[in-house]
TrEMBL record:
The lineage of its organism: Eukaryota, Metazoa, Chordata, Craniata, Vertebrata. SUPFAM superfamilies: DNA/RNA polymerases, DNase I-like. InterPro entries: AlkB_hom8_N, DNA/RNA_pol_sf, Endo/exonu/phosph_ase_sf, RT_dom. It comes from Hemibagrus guttatus. This is Reverse transcriptase domain-containing protein. GO terms for molecular function: 2-oxoglutarate-dependent dioxygenase activity; methyltransferase activity.
Amino acid sequence: MVPPSIHLENLRSLPNKMDELLLLSRTNKDFSNSAALCFTESWLNDTIPDNALNLPGFQLFRADRVAESAGKSRGGGTCFYVNERWCTDVTALKKMCCPNLEAFIINCKPFYSPREFSSFILVSVYIPPQAHMRSALQHLDQITHTEQQHSDSVIIILGDLNKSFERLVLAYLKNITGPLLDPLQFAYRANRSVDDAVNMGLHFILQHLDKSGTYVRLLFVDFSSAFNTIIPTLLQTKLTQLSVPSSICQWITSFLTDRHQLVKLGKFTLYSHTTSTGAPQGCVLSPMLFSLYTNDCTSTNPSVKLLKIADHTTVICLIQDGDESAYRQEVEQLAAWCSLNNLELNMLKTVEMIVDFRRNTPALPPLTIMNSTVPTVESFRFLGTTISPDLKWDTHIDAIIKKTQQRLYFLRQLRKFNLPQELLTHFYSAVIESVLCTSITVWFGSATKSNIRRLQRTVRTAERITGAPLPTLQELYTSR
C-alpha cells in the first residue's frame, strides 16, 4: 500500500521541470511513493499535450489558466499527478479560474481507505501575488462548501495559503496601527519611503548645524539577527497596547510559536528543533511585526532623534556647546531597552560618524556601549545612500559611476549580439537607470555640477550604445 502522502510544489513551468521530476521519481522514494503530486503555476496551455508531460506511474489531471477568466494568458494553472498504485478511480469535480484565484478539485477513490471515508477530495489552490486578498478568500470559502456536499469524504486543500492570509493581516495591521506608530518609523507608512528617512535625517542635521557652536553625532545601530529575536508573548502585549484585537494577537502568537524546523540530507535527518522565538525569514508579516515590536523604542530628549525603518535604527544627536549628556543617556537607555526586549547589539557593525563644521574642532571623547568602544567612520552607507562627514556626495556618486560603468559593459555585449533597440532600452532602464536613480531625491539637489556632468556622461554613453534617446538626470529627478 502506498502511504497517503502528498507532495506540493509551486513549479513555475511544468514543462521546464519535467527532467527534474523524472529524476526524482526514479531516485527519491518519498517522491515516487507520494499518493499525489500537486503543482501550482504549471504554466500549461492548449499547445502542450499530455503525452509531453508523462510521468511513469502517475496519472495527470490538469486545469490550465483560462485567459478570458483570469484576465491574462501567461502563467498560472494547477495540476495533479495521482499515483496509480494508490488510486485509479479519479474524477475531476470542478475547475475555477478568475483574476484572484485558480482552483482545481478532484475526487479520488483509492484502493484502500478507512471505512468511514468513501473518497479523498483534493483541492489545489493558487492565489496570484497581485490578487485582491479579500476576494480570493471569499472564493476559497465557496470551495470549502464542497465538504457539505461530500460529508463522507476527506477534503484536503493544497496551496500556499499562509502568505495570502499574511497579506490580509498585514493590510489590517497597517490600517489599525498606522495612527499610533512612532512618527520617526518609516517602514509600512503611507507616503513614506527610505528616501524620506534619509531626507528627514539630513534635515535635522543641516537645520541644527546652522546654529553656532553645534555639531552632530550619528550612531548607526546594527542588531544581531533582529527578526530572530522577537518574543511572541512580549509582541502580543505590545500589539494589545496598539489596539489590535485579541483574536489577531492570538493568531500572530500562534503563527510565531512551536515552529518545527529540521535539516535533512538524503535519508538522514540531521537536526530537528522546535522554536518559539523570532519571525520566519521571508514571511510577508515579519518586517511589520518587527516594526511594531520596536515601536516603543523612542527618544525622550528632543535633541536626540531615533530614525527607524524596519530593523535599521539610527540615533542622531544634535549637540550644542559640547554637552553630550543627553546623547550618552539615550544610548544607555537604548542598550537597556534592547536587553529587556531580547535584542542584541552587534558591536562589530555598530559605528558612529561625527559631523562637525566648526573651525577649531577639539578631540571628542569616544562613545562606549557595554564596555565596547564604538568606532568612528569617515563614510557610511545609510539606507542605500553613502553619507560623509562633510555631507558632500563625492563618495556616493563615485560608487554610482563605478556600478554603471560595470553595467555598460553588458549593454555593449548585448548590442554585439544584435538585440533590438527596444530590448537594449529596457535593459538600460532596468539595470543602469535604476542605479542612477538610487536615492536621487536625496542627493541630486545638492550635488555639484561636475558630479552631475560625470553621471550625465554615463547616460550619453548609453544613448550611443542603444541608439535611442534616453531621459537626462534632470528629467529623472523631476519625474520623482
